[in-house]
Amino acid sequence: MNNFLGRHFSTSFDSVKVKPTSLKPLIDVNSRRKNWNPVPIPFRTIPEPRGQDPDFVNVAHSHLVHSDWNKLNALSIHVTPFRVKHVLLKIQKDHVLSLEFFNWAKTRNLTSHSLETHSVILHILTKNQKFKSAESVLRSLVSGSLELPAKMFDVILYSYRICNSSPRVFDLLFKTYAHAKKFRNATDAFYRMKDYGSFANY
User: Fold this and answer.
1) Cα angle 139, 43, 155; round to 5
2) Which of 47, 97, 165, 194 could form a disulfide with 123 if both were Cys (CB 3.0 to 4.6 A apart)?
3) What pLDDT digit, counting tens, does each position of 98-132 carry?
4) Known InterPro entries for this protein (predicted)?
């Protein structure tokens, strides 16, 4: 991970004026960075599809790339979060199609999504700089439950590498929490990203 995340987070506080007397502690912190060892972002694999899951993923993928939504609709009763996640990973290079499928699954089957499916679409969208769409997805999620915001950081973290993601996804998380006035979650996300190398190279 490069220095981008640290710089990008700082833009959220551009409007805050810093007094000269407050600069010394910052300098002291910077001088200690040489001895600071960030926690590596973990790499976690996901279970491979088994049983009828591979058939669903392959057939759904075929219908998607051929824009055959009528045939895809016939599969909607068989949609699960696990299958949605694997389809998204399979089509992640096409962010437009990924979002279309994500929204289709949500419309057709209310139980088709989980925190993990949300994290995958957030990685896909932010990696392609579709920040408004990503924030819309995240806002609808964090506004509905008191428990979800606290869990979202870890879910995004553990799916980060498998999606070959961008540090922008954490910036999105921080800003969305701030805009939703979930300041405790925003602060927690900010400091946890420092732990995972917001000022370090990976």
Assistant:
1) 20
2) 165
3) 999 999 999 998 889 999 999 999 999 999 999 99
4) TPR-like_helical_dom_sf
pTM for the model: 0.76
Q: Tell me the C-alpha to C-alpha distance, in Å, between residue 83 and each of 26, 28, 74, 113, 163.
A: 47, 49, 15, 10, 16
Q: Tell me which residue has tokens 């609709």.
A: 73
Place of tokens 């900010």: 190
Average pLDDT over residues 5-28: 38
CA–CA separation, 201 and 89 (whole Å): 26
- Residue 134 CB neighbour total at 10 angstroms: 25
The domains of the chain are located at 4-13+50-195
pLDDT bin (cut points 50, 70, 90) of residue 36 is low
